Amino acid sequence: MQPQGEFDLIARYFKRPAPSGMLGIGDDCALLSPAQGCDLAVSTDMLVEGRHFFADGDPRRLGHKALAVNLSDLAAMGARPLACTLALSLPRLDNAWLQAFADGFHALSRDAQCPLVGGDTTGGARQVVLCITVMGEVRRHQALRRDAARQGDDLWVSGVLGAADIALRLMQGSLPPDPDRLALCRSALETPTPRLRLGRYLAGVAHAAIDISDGLLQDLGHVLDASQCAADLWLDTLPAHAALAGLDDTVRRDAVLAGGDVYELCFTAHPRRREQITTLSRQLKLPITRVGAIRRGTGLRVLDALGREIPVPRRGFDHFSISQT
Amino acid sequence: MQPQGEFDLIARYFKRPAPSGMLGIGDDCALLSPAQGCDLAVSTDMLVEGRHFFADGDPRRLGHKALAVNLSDLAAMGARPLACTLALSLPRLDNAWLQAFADGFHALSRDAQCPLVGGDTTGGARQVVLCITVMGEVRRHQALRRDAARQGDDLWVSGVLGAADIALRLMQGSLPPDPDRLALCRSALETPTPRLRLGRYLAGVAHAAIDISDGLLQDLGHVLDASQCAADLWLDTLPAHAALAGLDDTVRRDAVLAGGDVYELCFTAHPRRREQITTLSRQLKLPITRVGAIRRGTGLRVLDALGREIPVPRRGFDHFSISQT
Questions:
Q1: Which residues of A touch B325 (CB under 8 A)?
Q2: Which of B32, B52, B76 is closest, CB to CB, to A42?
Q3: According to CATH, what is the number of the domain B146-303?
Q4: What is the ipTM of this complex?
Q5: B10-139, which class in CATH?
Q6: What is the rounded CA–CA span in Å between residue B10 and residue A124?
Q7: For chain B, which residues make up each domain, given as ranges?
Q8: Do B44 and A131 touch (CB under 8 A)?
Q9: Which residue of A131, A207, A219 to mutate against B (max B Cβ within 10 Å)?
Q10: What is the CATH number of domain A8-139?
Q11: Which residue stretches of chain B have pLDDT < 50?
Q12: Which residues of A touch B24 (CB under 8 A)?
């Protein structure tokens, strides 16, 4: 087969008609029209083969996940997706890989109403590197910022925790092989669902929010630092995924408290919002669990059912744990 | 030295106070407030070590150029910069490199009033990969789109052409060593100036515009394809950079017509705009030269001073000239 130009590759795999009112792929810039009275929310993530995904992983699932992790940032801000861009650096042109990747990407892009409006593809890479930027809109002053938690707020978590961590450990071999368990938790790792509807409902209702992509303790820690307050987290209330059943206590606790790659929202809200949030949970058919409280001071305490503090290492996923020169 | 976390790296090299009304680095998303009545222009570019820049190149100049090539896309759309994001994948943490890169990046970011509001840094890469996304605003219906050229339009080019191509050839050794010549043209390749002021003035004045990053023939070809019209390009009028003096005719012609990495604007405008554009050229102290005309039909002809057509290969820089699997 002949070498294939950059422009053919974009047209073949990635170009879709732009929604009305937008200018999509094919000009120097894309053009969007954010709604009046809205702020623009922007997030960017880079995924590197061998670090954020396996080289031999399923490209369709990768296409989904690469976009999902970015959409999760919009969800955590309470923003509605507007559009996204994709930059892709490839060591070689593999048509089957590209087709499957594009299929997974476009399927979620369509579901989330987040059209791909611009991109860049390049060769000469020694490994696959993806960079996605998402843009969304959120009514002015209603964004769910990290620095907005207030003393006396309830602390909530959506969904169930720990599945992605266990899936990763099973796939990496740091837990003994267990195909049934892996079947239960693999989709949490590979095709997570960004909580966009939840995020949009929470804008104007909740105070602070964050997604738990780096682990609950670490990400909640960011909220506390930014909001200059403290929190109690009630260990027994934390909703664990069914795939954690029967595992060693330490492994379970670690997965729930520190396991990364969780695209659920952790948020704070005034106690008078409890009924509203419980109703929302029913409407969305999504568990939303009250797991603690924000208090004055600094630091994060994890408490057992009797209110005793449990020592836990505060840690999570560090994207750059390599030594420097 | 100890390993350094992702968050320290961002804080140390890249975090700057966000301008008033914006939320910058440190939340799930950045928040911007585009002006009412404006469209949002978005462009993204990925740069890969060994392909778009030399591994041993000056990191300060790289920081400048990485942002400049993206700002040039905003200029070509007639947009005013609003903010940018930067994702950076690194094989190792090299503090001196990062500091110099960040200095070059921030200096241009400040000059262009395009604050860095979000980003991502990651390790585990086998080579340096950068991805920048720029966002700008342009008054609705005034963006300089590729599909807006009209029959009878004049064809204009800003600045002078060919310098980056000659610099690249000298540095790669495909032209014999010539330190004086390299000194003349190196900055065009390494620290190009995006034509932001020109682009903003042209919004609402010119019809189509594009930057010449892939070479004049190829980029003008994109305008003609998108606008479904043809053009004559007058070879003798094309403004050549002083560094081309004394070079072989074929090398000069090739550099001017097909040399990439030129961050000048090629645009079309109604002939009644000539005086306005000439005045603008004086105000900006930037040559703006009328180099041809848009006509009915398809295709691009290059004509000599006697109006005879000159055969030229229509080509430019292809970002993906590798063979596929």
A1: 92-95
A2: B32
A3: 3.90.650.10
A4: 0.86
A5: alpha beta
A6: 27
A7: 10-139, 146-303
A8: yes
A9: A131
A10: 3.30.1330.10
A11: 1-4, 314, 317-325
A12: none
